[in-house]
Amino acid sequence: MQPVSGHCVMTIASDLNPQQEQALVDVAKELQVTAVDLAAAAVRDLVAQRSSDFEVAAQRVLDKNSELYRRLA
Prior knowledge:
The chain has about 70 residues and is mainly α.
């Protein structure tokens, strides 16, 4: 990772088979973006979604066990 304007930039390489590559290119053309920009957006969305899912699951566990945590405090 390289720092850029106070942020780190990560470059990721991915091996796609020809069908996957063509599908990425086709969707990118439909959206009028580059395949690289579409792939980067997909990764950002995946990371954001996983964070959101984790927070929901963690809150559910905390809520479920709140009485236990209160007693142990």
